[in-house]
Amino acid sequence: MAYAKGLEIAGYECLLYLEGVGADGLARSDVQRNFGYLFEQVHYGWDDIAPADLVIATIWYSARIVRDLPFSCRKAYLVQDREALFYPVGYEALMAEQSYRYGLIPITVGYWLKTELQKRHGVQAYALNFGVDEQIYRPLDDEQREQAVCFIYQPDKPRRCARLGIDALGIVKHHAPNTKIYLYGSHKSEARNVWFSHTHMGLISPKDCNRLYNRCSVGLCLSASNPSRVPFEMAAAGLPVVELWGDSMLYDFRESMGILCEPTPESIAEGVLTILKDSDSPVGARKGRQQPSVDEVQEFVTVINHVIEGATPSVEDVLRRYSNPMIKSSPETARLPVEVTCRVNAPGNASLNRLHPVLRKLLGWGARIVRTRLLN
Predict the structure, then answer these.
(1) Based on the domain organization, do 82 and 212 belong to the same domain?
(2) CA geometry: angle at 119 spanning 118 and 122, to 5°?
């Protein structure tokens, strides 16, 4: 929504079409309530899109809608993640991958996605840097740093690796029992199988997020696909970040922000413990500054100007911004008592497997019925 507001400020007339059904007045109020922006022309549904100079798809199944519009216009595609990774191998994953081949001009959030489209599909894309609103995310003089870790815990989003983060923090608590653990980013009722003492903050405002980042010594955010915006916001607040080492991070995550770890509980714990032991180390983000959010929006407006003028993205080599080696667990960190090892090694369906076979069968039958009805 910040991009759309930036276009309006730049003089563009914007019509927003939301997924779903409802009255236009409700659509406007929903956008204002959820995103804080007021737009005059907001509609529910994609069946009656008015002619425009440019139409932008924002999710894989809207790309097909934009491709098949009955009027002539420029067509772009705001690619915010590699959405095929959100699904098991099948229809949704295949169609999400296919959406990049519809001839729309891609605009990617981050440079990893740009390299993915070029490498996998031979498609050139414009790319935007991850920006931060530094009026919100910034160091605060009145907050005292604690020996604490904050983890954005979102068990409803598999790509946010909730189980991996919890297991890593359990290992941290074993080796550094005085460390405070703060979970946030989901309803408190969603905290499942958290087997150590912690504080669940629930869903908190951006300003409260910034206060939390100023209070902690390490920020933990795990993303198995395109980077979240959260690590950049943590870094802008002066909080060193621990993230997953992987191709999706190397093009956008900067070395000044923190460290990238092998995707195992022990190695992530190693990264957290490393920063906790030396909280003033330059490995963190205390001296780094991220690009302000207003610049990211301006980048988007500039790209849209190019698209309107008929320009297309050029071929370019994208350099990795992170070149440090992957953090791996030391033997000391991996040396754990049986009770911790059992927790970390327990399969995801361990609780289900402890149920009586008849009850497991009934639960499986019920889940299949619900899934079938939802899909039909």
Answers:
(1) no
(2) 50
Domain CATH code at residue 125: 3.40.50
Q: Are residues 210 and 335 located together in one domain of the fold?
A: yes
Question: What number of residues does the chain have?
Answer: 376
Return the H-helix or E-strand segment holding 31.
helix 24-35
3-state secondary structure 57-108: ECCHHHHHHHHCCCCCCEEEEEECCCHHHHCCCCHHHHHHHHHHHCCCEEEE
- Say yes or no: 255 and 235 in one domain: yes
Q: Is residue 216 predicted with pLDDT exceeding 50?
A: yes
Could you please report the per-residue DSSP string of 234-285? HHHTT--EEEE-SHHHHTT--GGGEEEE-SSHHHHHHHHHHHHHTTT-TTSS
Q: Is 238 exposed, middle or buried (0-12, 13-18, 19+ CB in 10 A)?
A: buried
Q: Examine the domain organization and report whether 162 and 268 are in the same domain.
A: yes
Dist CA 117 CA 121 (whole Å)? 5
Residue 376 lies in a domain: no
Same domain, 191 and 334: yes
Q: 159 with 225: CB under 8 angstroms?
A: yes
Residue 276 structural domain:
148-289+324-345
Say if CB 227 and CB 110 are below 8 A apart.
Answer: yes
HSE-CB at 345 with a 13 A cutoff on CA atoms is: 8
Instruction: List, for residues 301-339, the tens digit of each pLDDT value.
Output: 999 999 999 999 988 889 999 999 999 999 999 999 999
| SS3 (DSSP) at 220 | strand
CATH of the domain at 224: 3.40.50.2000
